[in-house]
User: What shape does this take?
Amino acid sequence: MEQPSASTRLAGAVRDLASEVVSALRGGDHPGVVCAPAGIVEDDKLGIAAVRVLGADVLLPSIMSRRRPEGLDVRILRQALTAFPPGADASRATAWSHWAMARSLRALDPPVPHPADDEPDASWLDTAPWQALTHQVSLLAALAVPGGDCGVLRALTRRPHDVARGFVRAVRRRDWLQAAGAGRWLAVLDDVPPSLGLDTGLEFIQHMDGADPRVALHVSAAQLLRAGDPR
Amino acid sequence: MRDVRLTHDVGLKALTWLHAHRDGFRLEPAAEAGGSFLERFKPVGELALICKVLFREGVAGSRQAELARQLLDHAWREVLDGGRALVVGQRREPLSPVPFETYVPFRELGYGEPELERAIRINHRLGSWAALEVSPVRRLGVCTFERRYGMTPSTPLPEAAARTWLARTPEPWTVEGHIGYDITHTVFHLTDWGESPRGLPDEVADYLALWLPVWLDDWTDLRRWDLLGELLVVDACLPYPSLDEAAWTALAGAQSPDGSMPVSGADGEAAGGSDGGNEAFDLLYHPTLVAAFASALATSRAMSGLAPERA
Assistant: This one.
């Protein structure tokens, strides 16, 4: 039998990890504990890479429940942050997701020290066409957390209708992951048009592709943000 | 939209093709009742509605106005036999609204058929006419035509409008092709085919201003030119039309060199060529008419400086 490729194994590890985040968000067996039930241990290269892909969302269950995260999750997130620094030619999405991981560590009580990077540039979000805007920020949905002020949020606060249009576009095109990410942003924005039907839209996305744990993660986060309004 | 010539030329080319292929507007007298005899009125009625828009908007230029007048005369005299064909249709299916709907724009343009008018008056008094089970957007259309004709709408217009999909302003991400056509036709009826943009209730206009850009983007990428053309008509009916450059450029690019517009896909060749007889005509006439319609309205709005209200 052929060995699965590295990318296939990484995708599988990301799915497993996302499943644990969803389970923890929904108050499953391990509330606030993510890496251990996903089988990830310290110095586990594949696991650390998976944590880098999911980024700050590894700590999302503890942020949403306002609990101190489990020590292993924090240590592995730190390892991922150190192991995959953004290169000079990193994409905007990569720079921002790296910054989000560092922010989530610094926000802990007590904070986990990490060099405070400057916020990456977000000015391009002011001029991006709404289609590209939504595509890009859906990749950065891990930044959409309670109290998560940052340049991306400030830019989107000025363009809620454009994000809503991008949400419609993504649902129409059956791009469920993008739709879920955009929906999560809309859950933290004011002035979302009521005619969008965000709540039924989130349910629809969950129904159509909730089997993908990355989709379920964003939908669950959005629904918790909508229900708790912890902004 | 920076280039008004683009929208104008799409319409001129479309009308030129329709004129050259006017024999495609034809009836099938041998068809049985309930068959295609009344169905063949639909293209003729649409032609009259859109030629009326061309005259009304006054941006067509003398060449287009001449083509439109010749097309109308041909449709009335040759296809409808001076209106007699509508009478025959009404006798075959007395309760059908189709002959009435086809007749209204011709009557507004000065054509007349007294016997049909008697049938219309009798029909309008029937409880069955008002009770006919048709879709909400179709009911709205019949009622607006009744108003245009000078009769009391068989369902009060606000009530007929409120029953449509669009009036409820539902989730915009649920829109697919059929709903798209329901939206466009609701706008056509509410605005008297673009004549009265103020016929759109504010709530509906706001809803469309918000979500129409998404649908234009989608149906441009899907290369569904027929529905895209209708959505561009809707755009031109809004208080502040976008005259979406990407959509118009794509539509113009899809138009065949001879002026015909394919329903979808790459070009008219996909439909078997625009000289492929009645079968090809039946595929091409509607998107081509819609292109002429969208062109007339968009050109007019562009030239009036995007004024929110027309005089």
Summary: The longest helix of chain A spans residues 6-25. The interface with chain B takes residues 130-131, 161, 164-165, 167-169, 171-173, 193, 195-197, 200-201, 204 of chain A (CB under 8 Å).
